[in-house]
């Protein structure tokens, strides 16, 4: 899809699923893509009617929701399920507006289900725009189909009306949903990224998560002697898990600036020392991988880790939930930040990549936009967020909403790591959404690097070459970010 | 209308009208369907290849031949073209060789019995079984071979090799092997079809031809190379055309089986896959259409060449 | 011809008998070797299919485990239940039979009509239309995909089986017309001419005389079309979107299951679904194998 207005959102679990969808022979994107084009032609018959259903506003009803106005909610029913909506958010909304009917639609094909409706102007009120066939938010925004969520983030929080909602969220949440400078997307799920291992196994063997790459290598030797594969990722469809690690390490060495430069296609961004050093260090770790992992998909590799055949696996917070049915009792997920590379690293070992993801949107032409905003406000309340975490096994962007919950070991580990990291957060990368060609090339080069077919220098040179060619391609709209 | 009622010139005119009316009535539906669903999309695609359309804007910008000049220096495009060349040569050769071998065994391998050439015992069974893969949808085959080719000890093929203490083979991750592995799937699926095709060709050969040759003391090899082969040459050419056209596809299998779709390092990519990716992932519809046009000319060149070779119709109307 | 052969046989009998004896051992070795080759290929063909059936009874660890060739520990139909319930294989199968059945019928009807006219009548534009059809043989479907979507959508046929059927017919025409034109040309002129002399109309001549005469060719091309359309998976994915899941065709279903298995890690379910897609096809094929094999080759070998 076009990147005329990219959405600076992070790679989320949903996007990951989308990629997996692509890897399989499913051709879902065709439908979504084509329908997206269809939207390009039509859908301009109506003007935004945000206030059409408005009732009087009040402190308790900041958006002026009409108490009996129907609300249609479309939820992507994927790995997170949809019970968080049917059992938590929708009942909360009904409690507030007993006279309103809430129509719940669950689907796995968001785009195919909704694109025709966008084209015809008959849109639902609230959408979890996720899954293998999510719609391009940038394209929707360009078409004037998305509601500006500024009012939501400026509204008073349900838990503490003296606070604005934006101040109750993890820093960076609102920014992650900006398109062309305005928040159009509510990224609801908070994910942490790092190296995952079996805490029980490590305890039993007396292994400790490494703090530096030297320790990492030494530990890998030890693990190898114990008969396990020290480190692995799935080359067939998830090499981006690995390039995240390379980018995180580069950011730890140089600071987040390197990620900004890469996103902004700055000259020489890929040939910077930080990237080179990171690539070289990870290539060393690559030598501990079994060659065969290049041909496996992520669930295959993850299942092998559950069988204690693999020690470390790079991934994000969704991993534990994804593997739930395959995780034996002897396996307890824990995460550790990527090791430090040099003693001069800009960021400490504790620094971790954390990002908001899982985009929710409100169509500008929805009949009950006020109700949708209120629904989002309910999601962002502590009660709503807590319920979500309980039902879906994922943390939300609502600060402190998980307090008092008995978290699963993996989630607790992410929570602890985030606490330890404090302000040392490695940010998201936007080029993954903005410049798909660059992203595709990075996957290819990452496999080449990690499975020993090219050197770190070649890796950097190849990536720089591709970045330059994207920059020179006049048909690609260029994006920019400063935070 | 009874044409007998009309006189000389009138009858001629009415015959003519009747003929054209008939021609029109028989052609109109197929031609209209074909024009709407086939010709018009292709015509549009040719136009799109001259634009930089990204799939959203209503009026794409005309860029002339820019997409085509860019193709010339696109490494991935050339890698795909090379793969088609390899597929075009190797896939029909191997498939036809295996199919010929088996159909010879199944039809003539049993030697002459009671004056008739016959196949080896159980040839009917083999012919039925060999056709199995052909009835499986390619989607099914792709998913199935994921498990067969899995690169570690859990793969079916590697499990087999393990029995003979042969180390694991990275069927799809070895850059030199990956394309051949995918070709293997196509061959696996096709052989049965060509066995049936060639068998029919062989059974159409009059048995006295073999009898005569056998009397002259021709061995099996001579029987095969100097009699069977020339006599079913037409059928082999038909097979070659089918397989050649298949060599320009392979999209589904590459997409399902290969590392990173077309990898590792572009080792398995094919044009349909690149077109797909360029259009639907990169949303560069103009450039993708240019690739499509290139693929069109490659295929039509092959088709024209093979039609010339295999032309066997009566041109006279 | 028979007598001639018999004559050969009589004359050559003693010599041939001697030769046969002499070659007997030879044949034994050759026969053994050829049987080995045939059996190996049989295993290659049947093995993967059998393995799929077995895998559907295994558990996840058994499939992902180190013994891919081992038998399942216990035979549980749970995965079949899951696949049936979640994957709707039966529904997709029915849809596919309907779509492929209807579109093959009309492909053959329209294709043979066009081919007959193009093969046997001289009129302005004949060659043009013929080559237009034949050139379609070499069009890569990918090139047309995007515009095709819009064509179908503008006709209001997107997400309908009618749309898929019309597109299938249109895309099967090049192949059908090409081969049937050649076939009709090989049929003798005299019969049709005689019929016309008797006052039969062109249309009646076609349906009552030419079609029966062309039967072997028609059956053969029909089988090709059924196989081709059954296997088609790119077009339905574009033409039947996710919002009409109940209209999906079997290839879409399989693709979807494969995706789901990717993130739910339900491999037994995947293989159960695959088995469900394979079984009916195999059964239909085995029941009709004689007709299919003879039909397949009747037209191709001429």
UniProtKB/TrEMBL annotation, chain A:
Alphabetical keyword list: Signal, Transport
UniProt signal peptide: 1-38
GO CC, one annotated term: cell envelope
Annotated InterPro entries: Bact_solute-bd_prot1 (IPR050490), Chitin_NgcE (IPR022386), SBP (IPR006059), TAT_signal (IPR006311)
Coiled coil: none
Compartments reported by the entry: Cell envelope
Pfam families according to UniProt: SBP_bac_1
Family: Belongs to the bacterial solute-binding protein 1 family.
NCBIfam families, per database record: chitin_NgcE (TIGR03851)
Protein name, entry field: Carbohydrate ABC transporter, N-acetylglucosamine/diacetylchitobiose-binding protein
From TrEMBL, chain C:
Gene Ontology annotations of biological process type: transmembrane transport
Domain of life: Bacteria
Keywords in alphabetical order: Cell membrane, Membrane, Transmembrane, Transmembrane helix, Transport
Compartments, record wording: Cell membrane
UniProt domain ABC transmembrane type-1: residue ranges: 93-288
Chief place of localization: membrane
Membrane topology recorded in Swiss-Prot or TrEMBL: Multi-pass membrane protein
Family annotation (InterPro entries): MetI-like, MetI-like_sf
Record has Heme as a keyword: no
GO cellular component entries: plasma membrane
Transmembrane segments: 27-51, 92-118, 130-152, 164-184, 205-227, 267-288
UniProt keyword annotation of Transport present: yes
Similarity section: Belongs to the binding-protein-dependent transport system permease family.
Protein name (record): Carbohydrate ABC transporter permease
Source organism: Sphaerisporangium album
């Amino acid at each position: 899809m076009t990147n005329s207005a990219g959405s600076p959102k992070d790679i989320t679990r949903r996007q990951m699923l989308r990629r997996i969808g692509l890897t399989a022979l499913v051709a879902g994107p065709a439908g979504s893509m084509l329908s997206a084009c269809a939207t390009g032609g039509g859908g301009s018959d109506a003007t935004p009617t945000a206030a059409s259903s408005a009732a009087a506003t009040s402190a308790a009803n900041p958006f002026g929701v009409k108490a009996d106005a129907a609300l249609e909610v479309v939820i992507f029913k994927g790995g997170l399920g949809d019970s968080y909506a049917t059992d938590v958010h929708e009942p909360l909304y009904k409690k507030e507006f007993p006279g309103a009917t809430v129509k719940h639609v669950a689907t796995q094909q968001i785009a195919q289900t909704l694109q025709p409706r966008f084209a015809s102007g008959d849109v639902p009120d609230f959408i979890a725009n996720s899954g293998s066939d999510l719609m391009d938010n940038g394209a929707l925004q360009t078409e004037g189909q998305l509601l500006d969520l500024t009012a939501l983030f400026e509204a008073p929080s349900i838990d503490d009306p003296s606070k604005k909602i934006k101040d109750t969220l993890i820093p960076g949440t609102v920014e992650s949903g900006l398109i062309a400078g305005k928040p159009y997307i509510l990224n609801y799920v908070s994910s942490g990224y790092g190296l995952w291992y079996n805490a029980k196994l490590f305890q039993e063997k007396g292994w400790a998560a490494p703090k530096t790459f030297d320790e990492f290598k030494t530990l890998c030797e030890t693990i190898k002697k114990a008969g396990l594969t020290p480190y692995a990722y799935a080359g067939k469809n998830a090499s981006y898990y690995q390039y995240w690690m390379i980018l995180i390490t580069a950011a730890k060495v140089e600071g987040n600036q390197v990620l900004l430069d890469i996103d902004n296609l700055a000259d020489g961004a890929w040939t910077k020392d930080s990237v080179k050093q990171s690539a070289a260090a990870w290539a060393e770790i690559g030598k501990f991988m079994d060659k065969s992992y290049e041909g496996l998909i992520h669930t295959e590799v993850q299942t092998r880790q559950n069988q204690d055949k693999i020690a470390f696996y790079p991934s994000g917070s969704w991993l534990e939930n994804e593997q739930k049915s395959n995780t034996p009792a002897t396996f307890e997920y824990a995460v550790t930040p990527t090791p430090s590379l040099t003693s001069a690293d800009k960021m400490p070992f504790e620094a971790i990549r954390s990002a908001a993801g899982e985009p929710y949107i409100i169509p500008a032409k929805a009949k009950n936009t006020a109700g949708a905003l209120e629904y989002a406000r309910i999601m962002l309340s502590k009660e709503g967020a807590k319920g979500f975490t309980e039902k879906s096994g994922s943390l939300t962007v609502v600060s402190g909403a998980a307090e008092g919950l008995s978290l699963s070991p993996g989630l607790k580990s992410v929570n602890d790591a985030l606490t330890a990291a404090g302000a040392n957060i490695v940010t998201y990368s936007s080029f993954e959404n903005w410049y798909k060609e660059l992203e595709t090339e990075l996957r290819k080069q990452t496999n080449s690097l990690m499975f020993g077919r090219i050197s770190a220098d070649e890796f950097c040179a190849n990536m720089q070459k591709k970045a330059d060619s994207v920059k020179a391609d006049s048909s690609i709209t260029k994006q920019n970010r400063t935070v | 209308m009874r044409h007998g009622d009309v006189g000389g010139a009138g009858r001629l005119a009415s015959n003519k009208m009747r003929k054209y009316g008939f021609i029109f009535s028989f052609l109109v539906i197929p031609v209209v369907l074909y024009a709407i669903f086939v010709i018009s999309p292709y015509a549009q695609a040719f136009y799109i290849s001259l634009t930089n359309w990204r799939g959203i804007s209503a009026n794409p910008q005309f860029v002339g031949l820019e997409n085509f000049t860019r193709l010339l220096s696109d490494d991935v495009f050339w890698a795909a073209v090379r793969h088609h060349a390899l597929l075009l040569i190797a896939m029909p050769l191997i498939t036809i060789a295996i199919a010929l071998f088996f159909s010879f065994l199944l039809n003539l391998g049993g030697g002459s019995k009671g004056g008739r050439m016959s196949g080896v015992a159980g040839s009917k069974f083999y012919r039925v079984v060999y056709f199995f893969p052909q009835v499986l949808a390619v989607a099914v085959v792709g998913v199935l071979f994921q498990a067969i080719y899995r690169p570690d000890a859990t793969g079916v093929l590697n499990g087999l090799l393990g029995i003979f203490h042969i180390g694991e083979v990275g069927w799809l991750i070895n850059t030199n092997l990956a394309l051949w592995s995918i070709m293997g799937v196509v061959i696996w699926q096709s052989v049965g079809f060509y066995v049936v095709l060639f068998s029919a060709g062989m059974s159409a050969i009059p048995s006295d031809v073999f009898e005569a040759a056998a009397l002259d003391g021709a061995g099996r090899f001579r029987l095969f190379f100097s009699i069977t082969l020339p006599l079913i040459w037409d059928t082999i050419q038909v097979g070659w055309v089918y397989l050649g056209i298949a060599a320009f596809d392979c999209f589904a299998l590459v997409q399902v089986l290969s590392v990173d779709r077309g990898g590792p390092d572009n080792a398995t990519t094919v044009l349909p896959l690149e077109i797909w990716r360029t259009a639907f992932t990169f949303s560069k519809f103009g450039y993708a259409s240019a690739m499509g046009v290139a693929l069109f000319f490659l295929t039509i060149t092959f088709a024209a060449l093979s039609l010339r070779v295999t032309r066997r119709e009566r041109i006279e109307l | 011809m028979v007598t001639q052969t018999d004559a050969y046989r009589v004359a050559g009998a003693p010599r041939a008998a001697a030769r046969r004896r002499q070659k007997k051992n030879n044949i034994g070795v050759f026969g053994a070797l050829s049987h080995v080759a045939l059996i190996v290929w049989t295993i290659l063909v049947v093995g993967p299919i059998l393995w799929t059936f077995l895998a559907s009874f295994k558990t996840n660890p058994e499939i992902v485990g180190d013994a891919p060739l081992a038998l399942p520990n216990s035979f549980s139909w749970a995965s079949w239940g899951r696949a049936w319930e979640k994957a709707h294989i039966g529904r997709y199968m029915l849809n596919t039979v309907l779509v492929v059945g209807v579109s093959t019928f009309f492909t053959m009807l329209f294709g043979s009509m066009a081919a007959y006219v193009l093969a046997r009548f001289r009129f302005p534009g004949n060659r043009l239309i013929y080559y237009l059809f034949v050139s379609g043989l070499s069009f890569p479907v990918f090139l047309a995909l995007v515009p095709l979507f819009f064509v179908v959508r503008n006709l209001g046929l997107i997400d309908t089986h009618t749309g898929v059927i019309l597109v299938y017919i249109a895309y099967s025409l090049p192949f059908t017309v090409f081969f049937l034109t050649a076939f009709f040309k090989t049929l003798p002129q005299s019969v049709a001419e005689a019929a016309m002399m008797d006052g039969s109309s062109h249309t009646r001549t076609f349906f009552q005389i030419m079609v029966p005469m062309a039967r072997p060719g028609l059956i053969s091309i029909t089988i090709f079309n059924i196989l081709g359309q059954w296997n088609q998976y790119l077009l339905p994915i574009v033409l039947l979107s996710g919002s009409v899941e109940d209209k999906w065709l079997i290839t879409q279903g399989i693709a979807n299951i494969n995706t789901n298995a990717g993130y739910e890690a339900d491999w037994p379910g995947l293989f159960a679904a695959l088995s469900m897609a394979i079984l009916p096809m195999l059964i239909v094929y085995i029941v009709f194998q004689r007709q299919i094999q003879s039909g397949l080759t009747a037209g191709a070998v001429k």
